[in-house]
Each structure stands twice: as structure tokens, then as C-alpha cells.
Amino acid sequence: MTAAAKSSVARDTVVLERTYRAAPDQVFRAWENVEARARWSKPWPEMDLVYDRHEFRVGGKDTYRCGLDGHFNWAAEIQYLDIVRDRRLIYSERMAEEGRPQSAALIAVEFFAKGKETLQVITIDILTLDGSGMLEGYAGSWAPVLDNLGDEFR
Amino acid sequence: MAQGTTTETLTKPHFGTFTIERRYSHKPERVFRAFEDNDAHYRWFVLGEGGWEIDHWKRDFRVGGRDHGEFRPTGHPSTFGNETWHLEIAKGQRIVDAYTMTMDGKPMSHSLATVELFPDGAGGCRLVYTEQGAYYGGEEDVRNRKQGCEDLFGRLDEDLRKHA
Do B116 and A9 touch (CB under 8 A)? Predict the structure, then answer.
């Protein structure tokens, strides 16, 4: 029997929890509103991020581009699978760099009221393709984004 | 109910994953063709052994394409729905889909599904299927889904044998 061919897919499941000083409906709106979303989902202020399409509904699609110095080498496509206002959001996201597919993910965001605050739990099933190297440090790449989201509620 | 949002469910989704591996006595390119060819796919994936009423089914197998259909076990009162988005396709090797299953319009699950095809010996293929998702029926749903997928890949085997 020949040696098993090596998989070109690496996968992981990551759970990210943050508590925000805002009610669930405010946190939900920060995901729903495209201006807010474009602002907080940039990991670094120097990065440029542009939403070309935003259809925040079940079956809707977002597309956005990002990169440095106006060179938008990353393209992303989001497909909304489930939206329950102020409670839950589930979407798939595929990313490509210079047109080459790099990753596909299932992202589930849940909002739980905790007194006057919101516990936000994001569960991500992430696949990285063809040795993209994205997997290592993937959870860490969300940290500045989740920090930025907190800034929306100051 | 606001347009564009699903019916609110009281259940928190359960996150689960499973993997299925099986071998086929056909090359990866041939197995891939059973996904790529609409008629072949309809035979093993949709029709199967019969016992299902298919209300409608549309397949659009390309990156960015969307399949959707509704069906029910014959005589069953509920309608099941499947909506699949193709996120990535590497011809002959890999398919990455995101799909939602519904029952009477309410979500049952949202999953990321990967099919990988590897050469296995002379003229053979190893298929590895991995599903990761949010299931509203808990871990039992995950087990049932795995069983359902195992049945599907069995029907794929029969279809490969019967058709050149």
C-alpha cells in the first residue's frame, strides 16, 4: 500500500470570548452596521479595508478587500447562514490572497446578556488551504479586532 | 418575523465535528466527476435508494455557486431543505462547502464540509470527509448526520460501480 497522501487542508476550532460594556443589541448592531464593521474589523489602523457589498440577511453575502498602502491583496467573501437579531450570527468566510484561496471558515457569533454587559462568544471552524501558514497564530490575529470592537462602545 | 432573519430558536447551537474515510476502486478524478457531473450527483446524492419526494433541486457546482432544494421522506409531514454554498473547489482533489439544513424552514444545522480525494494504490481513491458545524439537535444530531453521510458515500460507491 502506498503511503497516505498528505492532506492539503489544516483545520482547527477556536473559541474566542469577550465581555463588552454594552447591551446585546448594541453589540449586534456593531456587526450589522457596515461603517462600524469596516472600522473595527481592521486588525491595524494602517490597514485599508473596503466593503464592496454588505447584505446582512440570511442568504446574503458580503465582500470586502483589505491590504496595506492601497494594495488590496486580500479578498474575502462572507455568506450569512443564520441571523437571529441580538442573539446569534452564523456565517461562512472564504479568503484569498492575490486570487489564491487561503482559507474557509464557519464562524458562529453568540451574544449573551450578563447584567448590563454582553458576553460575546465566537466559535470558528477554520480550514487553511495548501500550506497557507495562516493557522498558526490564527486565534491571535483576532485579538486586535476584538479589542477594536470594544472601542465601539466607549 | 423580520424579513431576512430566521425564526428565533430557544436552543443554543451545539458545535460538533466528525470525519468519514472510505476507499473507492476508482481514481480520484473519476470520483470527483461524480460530484462535478450534475446527473451523476443527482443520482447518488439526491435520489439515492428512493423513498424521498423531491420538491425541487438546483445544483450550481462552481466556486461561489449555490445548490438548493427541498424534499421529504415519502409521506412525512415535514419538508427538509438543503442550501449549499461552494467555497472552494480544487478539481480532482478537494471541495469545501458551507451548508444549511432546515426542517419546515427552521435551521437544523450550519456546517463547513470538506471532501478530500487522495490516490490510493493503483486505480483507487481514498475519500476523507470532514464536517464541522453548529447543530440545533445536540450531539445526537451530529451522530445522525455522520450516519446519513456514511449512507451517502455508500450510494456514491454503488453509482461509481454502475456507471462508467
Answer: yes
Q: Which helix (H) or strand (E) holds A26?
A: helix A24-32
Nearest CB neighbour to A2, from listed B2, B112, B121 = B121
Closest chain B residue to A129 measured between Cα atoms? B88
CA dist., res. A126 & res. A94, Å (int):
10
Q: Is A32:B2 a contact under the CB 8 Å cutoff?
A: no
CA angle B89, B94, B98 (to 5 degrees): 65
Nine-digit cell string for A148 = 477594536
Q: Nearest-CA residue of chain B relative to A78? A: B87
CA distances to A104, A105, A130, A133, B40 from A100, rounded to whole Å, are 12, 16, 10, 13, 29
**Nearest-angstrom CA–CA distance, B110 and B134:** 5
**Residues near B146 by beta carbon (within 8 Å), at least 6 away in sequence:** B18, B20, B131
Which amino acid, residue B68?
H
For B18-70, write each residue's pLDDT tens digit: 999 999 999 999 999 999 999 999 999 998 767 788 999 999 999 999 999 99
Which stretches of chain A are assigned E, i.e. beta strand? 9-20, 47-53, 61-68, 71-84, 88-97, 100-114, 117-129
Task: Give the total residue count for chain A.
Answer: 154
pLDDT digits (tens, 9 = 90+) for A3-52: 456 788 889 899 999 999 999 999 999 999 999 999 999 888 888 999 99
